[in-house]
Design goal:
Among the domains are: 87 residues, Ubiquitin-like (UB roll), CATH 3.10.20; 222 residues, Rossmann fold (3-Layer(aba) Sandwich), CATH 3.40.50. The chain is built from 13 helices and 25 strands. The protein is elongated and about 90 Å long.
Length: 533
């Protein structure tokens, strides 16, 4: 492997690697705008120019391959002069609106102006002003802030393959534009906002909502489908404001789908179930959580007393964490040792959506058709628990004779949308039913006891994606109002003290869960505190 000297420091590079890539890997900071490891290299911003001994002029570090013994200078007088000139050029027409720009606090232009720019501007003429453009359902383009790095253009050409964006005009009239009648509405469109190094492309949903330096973040996994995309949940004071991609070379690389990006909205829905309910005289009435919980347990025990073993079931949601599924299986069988374990509905959107780079046909991203994150993990846990089991398809078709003896059960929802159709299977229309859910639906309306539960971003756990990769995620915000985490409820059912701790439950479950590591400590904030039931 080639070794190069950068500012007196010897670093080891990979074969055919560019200087900038080698410096990034070694932790050496070089300014960069147009370069992104997931896109082609245009070398257009020119701020990463470096001096290489033996070459007559400065070269772009992002486009110059290393060779063994190369000596590179990133802080020479020529390099520093170039950085100042590039920054001065980029700021000539850039508006001085940092106080009202959503990108302030995470803006490369803002940071580099302090690190590499001049202390004051020499430009005295009027700045060129460009209008704000509506380029998609979720995206604004503030054209006068754009520095023409073309990251967004390259993304739509090379990753999404949809090519909605292009460069229009020349010189100071050059700007990003969309083709007529073709807005940036592809399923990966939100990534262009993440890619923009300045405040040119902004998410309408986050616009003027929160200052980025106030946000905390928690490492998590996408709840939108079975792909297992790695994400950061960014929040402040118990409110989730946005979701950003978290790099994982083996899963989603640098990108996430828009389904994932906006999957946090049900967390703060006005319809969110926050109060327990129980049925009295044929109608549901609001109740304290403890009172509703006791009604649920006594009702289930009464079903077993009247009908014998094998009369209860638990319907697991594929939105549950594996640890919660493990506890629920044990809890329901502590009441009925022959209770049936059923995997709930697994919604699907037909076929996977595959994105390709039109230039080389290479697959760049896949949005999975299965619209829940953990059907594979719940199946694994049900298999580990053993005993009588069934699928939701069995329930619909009434295929198993054991289903006919079920007289009561515990049903878990937690889906991002209305998962319970009006045409419910017979099992869910009769008997004693306890429902844990976050949003109202047909099953909640017919339940004997309703227990408000925590949503996916309000608890810890792990999910298994479509290809068997088990990934841990951490809580970002606490559940609202009277909602409780499922794990806390199941521990109470088992007569165990303390609060739900996903890491401890994984150790009880054994392999492959016991050895699962949390995301790196620097990637997430401490989990929110919860109160014991």
């Amino acid at each position: 492997m080639p070794k190069i000297m950068v500012d007196g420091k010897l670093i080891e590079a990979k074969d055919r690697q560019m200087i900038l890539q080698a410096c990034n890997d070694a932790g050496l900071v070089l300014p960069q705008y147009c370069y992104h490891p997931g896109l082609s290299i245009p070398a257009s911003c020119r701020i990463c120019l470096v001096e290489v001994e033996g070459l007559p002029k400065l070269v772009p570090s992002c486009q110059t391959p290393v060779r063994d013994g190369m000596v590179v200078h990133t802080k020479s007088s020529k390099v520093i002069a170039n950085q100042k000139q590039v920054m001065e050029y980029l700021l000539i027409n850039h508006p001085l609106d940092c106080p009202v720009c959503d990108q302030a606090g995470e803006c490369y232009l803002q940071d580099y102006s302090y690190q590499y720019g001049r202390s004051q501007s020499r430009f005295e003429e009027d700045k060129v002003k460009n209008p704000k453009k509506d380029v998609g359902d979720n995206i604004y383009l503030y054209a006068d802030r754009c520095i023409m790095c073309t990251r967004c253009v390259r993304f739509t050409r090379e990753v999404s393959g949809t090519s909605e964006l292009f460069v229009e005009g020349r010189g100071h009239k050059e700007e990003i534009a969309i083709f007529p009648g073709k807005p940036v509405n592809n399923k990966l469109a939100g990534n262009v906002v993440d890619l923009c190094p300045v405040g040119a492309l902004l998410d309408k949903d986050f616009l003027f909502k929160q200052r980025v330096w106030l946000l905390k973040r928690s490492a998590s996994v996408s709840p939108a489908d079975s792909g297992g995309e790695n994400i950061y949940i960014e929040y402040n004071e118990g409110v989730v404001y946005r979701i950003k991609p978290r790099y994982n070379a083996d899963v989603n690389q640098w990108w996430i789908s828009d389904d994932t990006r906006y999957s946090y909205k049900p967390l703060h829905s006005e319809q969110r179930i926050c109060t327990a309910r129980r049925t009295e005289h044929g109608a549901q009435v609001e109740s304290g959580f403890e009172e509703a919980y006791q009604s649920a347990i006594s009702g289930l025990k009464q079903v077993v007393e009247q009908n014998g073993a094998g009369s209860l079931y638990a319907m697991f949601s594929p939105m549950m964490a594996c640890e919660e599924a493990w506890l629920l299986g044990q809890a329901i069988r502590s009441i009925d040792p022959q209770a049936m374990l059923i995997l709930g509905p697994v919604p699907s959107a037909g076929q996977d959506e595959v994105f390709k780079n039109p230039a080389n046909g290479k697959q760049t991203f896949v949005i999975k058709a299965e619209k829940v994150p953990n059907s594979a993990g719940v199946r694994r846990v049900i298999q580990m628990l053993g005993g009588p089991t069934a699928t939701f398809d069995d329930v619909i078709a009434n295929r198993k004779s054991e289903l006919r003896s079920l007289k009561g059960g515990w049903i878990v929802g937690g889906y991002l949308s209305n998962w319970a159709q009006l045409n419910l299977p017979a099992l869910l229309q009769s008997g004693f039913r306890v429902v844990q859910d976050i949003l109202p639906n047909a099953i909640v309306d017919r339940a004997d006891v309703v227990l408000p539960s925590a949503a996916w971003a309000e608890k810890d756990g792990c999910w298994e994606n479509f290809n068997g990769r088990i990934q841990a995620f951490t809580a970002a915000v606490p559940p609202p109002g009277g909602a409780r985490r499922e794990g806390d409820v199941y521990l109470k059912m088992l007569g165990r003290s303390g609060l739900y701790n996903a890491e401890m439950i994984r150790k009880e479950m054994g392999e492959p869960f016991a050895a699962l590591a949390l995301p790196a400590e620097e990637e997430h904030e401490p989990a929110p505190q919860f109160v014991e039931l």
